[in-house]
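2024-03-11 09:14:02 INFO receiving multi-entity request
2024-03-11 09:14:02 INFO entity count = two
2024-03-11 09:14:03 INFO echoing inputs for audit
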Amino acid sequence: MSAVREIEYRDALREAMSEEMRRDKRVFLLGEEVAEYNGAYKISRGMLEEFGARRVIDTPISESGFAGLAIGAAMMGLKPVVEFMSWSFSLVAADPILNNAPKMLYMSGGQFGCPVVFRGNDGAGGQLGSTHSWCVEGLFSNVPGIKIAIPSNPYDAKGLLKTAIRGSDPVFFLESERMLGNKGEVPEEEYLIPFGQAKVIRSGTDCTLASWGRPVHFCMEAAEEMQKLGISCEVIDLRTVRPLDIGTVVRSVKKTGACVVVDQSWSFGSPGSELASQVHRHCFDDLDNYVHRVHSADVPTPYATNLEQEYLPNARKIAEAVRSATYNL
Amino acid sequence: MTSLSHPTAGGTSAPASPHSVVHTKVYGDSEHLQVPAAAAHVSSEQMLDWFKQMLLIREFELRCMQAYQEKKIGGFCHVYIGQEAVAVGCTAAVQHKDPIVTAYRDHGHALARGMDPKHCMAEMFGRIGGCAKGKGGSMHMFDRDNNLYGGHGIVGAQTPLGAGLAFGCKYMDEVIDGKPNSRVSLCFLGDGALNQGAFHEAMNLAGLFDIPVIYVVENNGYSMGTAIARGTTMAHSLITKAAGYGIDGYVVDGMDVVGVYADMKHIADKCRATSRPAFVDMRTYRYKGHSMSDPRKYRTKEEEEVFETHDPIGRLEARLKTAGLLTDDSLKAMQKAVRDTVRDAITWSDESPIPPMAELYHDVFVEPWGPYTGSSQPAMNGGTANQPSMRTIDTKEELS
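2024-03-11 09:21:47 INFO inference complete, emitting structure
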């Protein structure tokens, strides 16, 4: 068997979009700098050349306008993929993405769905400051009617994005500028990854680490450190937070008896707090300690390197949480 | 010609009368638009049909007000009385396949588009027979079979959607089917929406991308209780805003249904042929308050009375009588038929069941997952009598 090729996260995203656009003419890409500039982060490099300007569309800096336009097009039966250069910029499109896309099917009594994918960079980049470092899952996971995928690696990014584009409901697809250059194994053959299926990426017996997106990597680092101390961590990559695969986490916690939830968004009213609450409910008699949580610090994102590093979830903070959660070992 | 000051005039010296019809075009070639009804080939049958439609909307809205007082309708309710000629004339000027999207004062558009009054009324009564199974309410009228894409409650929210609908039509025709664009979309908005960012972004995109959408500003002179000149720059010449986006702008008398039809037919035909957007300052007047709770302290009784003497229904009635197309007897018969239709709609809505509890988790997602049971078309659109089974969330069972 030949070795599986390795490609970058950004290439995986591009392959997913290109394959789906070849498969279905209703799919098109629009956003700032996606066409002639080849993508602000080179995710859509070469797509204009292959699909032409009718299907790879440069928009002005006008998030509310083009997000709403995509929703209207989706109601008409098309399948738009909207690139937000950063999810931080989606805040000026709050009304279309939160009031229209998730509610259209419901308030039309099942008449008009919104099969649209909004995707882009989420979370802190590198020293981008407060306004450009939003983890929007903290805000948007509160809203029913949307699905939210936050892949941590190229394989998942491709498989989940293809599922998102092929689906019939609105999807918020949260990528990370910090991971776009990460390489990972992605097979040549087509595959799709269903939403709501977490993946156990490291087996362990003493503590469950549950996370999604970029902090999954910090969890793996922390697990490695803990192993040196004789504490065995099981790491779960949730992959989507809506739907949330609580079953996989619960099965793990029933085995380990300890749980640390790692979520890059702020702690108050977050997907992390929701997951912790659900684990408490389902594993009340199995836990040896309360579910610990590691989030970004509850402050605006700082610029200075040292402050930003301390602000974000990192391996050290996760390791501290694991030691506290497993104090009885 | 009656001299009448539309609130548009505000405190400025600019002349603005909705009844001295100013057909103007300020962008592109300097065509002076004046489409006589005869040139638009309006038949007596059409005029009688529009008259009936306007009578129906008026009667329907009066009964809505009554039903609201009786607490059969909850939430917010915005009636269309006074503006009937706009929805009726505009809808007549486009084809049934052309999408329509509007704001929250939407009952008139739904009826003009062909929604059965009983589905419209039942929606407001919160019943399963409503167009959205009682889950949308007064501000959210949708009708897939009649290409009505809502009913949108947030001021200006529908303006990017309108661009998207038209973009979608054009993309389907040209990119997928490889033929010329065949549809034009109508996006209605109130003058209050002119100051929302979404509207300006939508206009820019429509101008930039050659999107065949017509923004029809139902300029009734007030955004809620604020006279237009108090909240909007260039209130006396809104079409200058369109010029800023490279979009043809027109002023149309929205109190004359025949004129609305003639002008809108010309505009729609042109947009369809050129695949370009348009902007219409449709001068009209709402006789009642912004919503049911509005005592209208911000304007004078005299102003209201003047507009009521230029009532779109009264004007067409006079025209039809002069032309010998309507008699007192035939008018009475028509009024009775309309009263019966609306009474039947109310009876039907009273009898329509409240939505089953299973509807709570239905129509959230197309694809079923977790507690969500998928979605289905309302009975109005030929959906099966929808009784989705309630899925209980028994996590113990799921997790075992």
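2024-03-11 09:21:48 INFO post-check: Chain B has a mean pLDDT of 88.
2024-03-11 09:21:48 INFO post-check: Residues 21-289+321-326 of chain B form a domain with the Rossmann fold fold (CATH 3.40.50.970).
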